[in-house]
Amino acid sequence: MDSATGSNLTPSSKALSEDDKVLVRDTWREATKPEREAGQKLFKRRVLIFQIAPEAQDYFSSSDLESDEFQGHITSVISTLDKALQNLDDLTPLLPTLERLGTIHANMGIKRQQLNVVKQALLFTLSQELRELFTDECRKAWELTFDILADAMATGMVANSNDD
Ligand code: HEM
């Protein structure tokens, strides 16, 4: 499917085309516009995260999907994504933050591959929100965007992991 392994790809080596950037930014704006309440609604399909990967639940102290911790994480993910989308032309300024974020996750035992749980939830939610706007081209642009973000996080995971 995708090559989402902890490769040595740098964010810039997976460059998005200008068309991809426009697509991703436009559809994010559409999916998260206030009328849709999607800032929170997005990822409130959170149950899916645990349906895709029940073991993801192990990383949170409570299995309560309404817990402040879990809801707070949804907000954290969205805000990280939002910042990345504002910096799609040049992610360099965000790299230290993303790397540190990767290290934080690696320290909790989370592997690069597990970040794709969020990718699946994101793609699913966007497809539900955007319906016919979520074309194949749009999906591909989003997949690439997520991979760039997750690969940037993975640089902090690789640097920190000696356990396998
Ligand atoms: C690309 C995907 C993800 C992003 C952008 C993301 C983002 C974040 C951020 C910004 C934080 C707060 C870090 C800090 O303390 O400064 C965080 C913490 C955390 N993340 Fe993630 N995360 C992702 C994927 C995951 C996945 C897949 C899991 C579980 C399987 C997970 C579990 C946690 C946990 C348990 C914490 C600590 C508690 C909390 O702050 O909510 N994350 N994440």
From TrEMBL:
GO terms for molecular function: heme binding; metal ion binding; oxygen binding; oxygen carrier activity. Residues 15-158 form the Globin domain. Gene3D superfamilies: Globins. Keywords: Heme, Iron, Metal-binding, Oxygen transport, Transport. SUPFAM superfamilies: Globin-like. Pfam families: Globin. Belongs to the globin family. This is Globin domain-containing protein. It comes from Pocillopora damicornis. The lineage of its organism: Eukaryota, Metazoa, Cnidaria, Anthozoa, Hexacorallia.
